[in-house]
């Protein structure tokens, strides 16, 4: 996916790289983002920080709504609002976030996402509104 991403995405994100996010699947209306948890992602209680889970949801939803088969058709977006519900604590391992577009129009789209651990347990879910740039 990294090679495909380099071709399709004209503006790679240094932030995503710094956090350790990987786009592993990207089709129209859907994106999957993974993160291998390190000590840098943990809060002082030893669980994955809620901000990391929200970042996974935000990034996956952003990709889900901006897919294009070519770099020339690539779109960018900004998050207008994002609501997250935390369901269970995440301790480590690989986290997988799947986002899907749920609706929208010419300028704004809506998406939702779920973050799961390696066992498939739901850790967090969120939904948001995104504006195309």
UniProtKB/TrEMBL annotation:
<dbReference type="InterPro" id="IPR029069">
    <property type="entry name" value="HotDog_dom_sf"/>
</dbReference>
<dbReference type="InterPro" id="IPR003736">
    <property type="entry name" value="PAAI_dom"/>
</dbReference>
<feature type="domain" description="Thioesterase">
    <location>
        <begin position="46"/>
        <end position="123"/>
    </location>
</feature>
<dbReference type="Pfam" id="PF03061">
    <property type="entry name" value="4HBT"/>
</dbReference>
<protein>
    <submittedName>
        <fullName>Thioesterase</fullName>
    </submittedName>
</protein>
<dbReference type="InterPro" id="IPR006683">
    <property type="entry name" value="Thioestr_dom"/>
</dbReference>
<dbReference type="InterPro" id="IPR052723">
    <property type="entry name" value="Acyl-CoA_thioesterase_PaaI"/>
</dbReference>
<keyword id="KW-0378">Hydrolase</keyword>
<dbReference type="GO" id="GO:0016289">
    <property type="term" value="F:acyl-CoA hydrolase activity"/>
</dbReference>
């Amino acid at each position: 996916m990294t090679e495909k991403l380099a071709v399709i995405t004209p503006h790679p994100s240094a932030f995503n790289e710094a956090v350790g996010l990987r786009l592993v699947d990207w089709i129209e209306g859907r994106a999957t983002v993974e993160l291998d948890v390190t000590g840098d992602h943990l809060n002082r209680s030893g669980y994955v920080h809620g901000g990391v889970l929200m970042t996974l949801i935000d990034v996956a939803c952003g990709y889900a709504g901006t897919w294009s088969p070519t770099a020339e058709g690539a779109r960018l977006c900004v998050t207008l609002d994002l609501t997250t519900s935390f369901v269970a604590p995440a301790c480590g391992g690989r986290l997988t976030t799947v986002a899907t577009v749920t609706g929208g129009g010419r300028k704004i789209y809506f998406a939702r996402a779920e973050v799961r651990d390696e066992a498939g347990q739901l850790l967090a879910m969120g939904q948001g509104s995104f504006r195309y740039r």
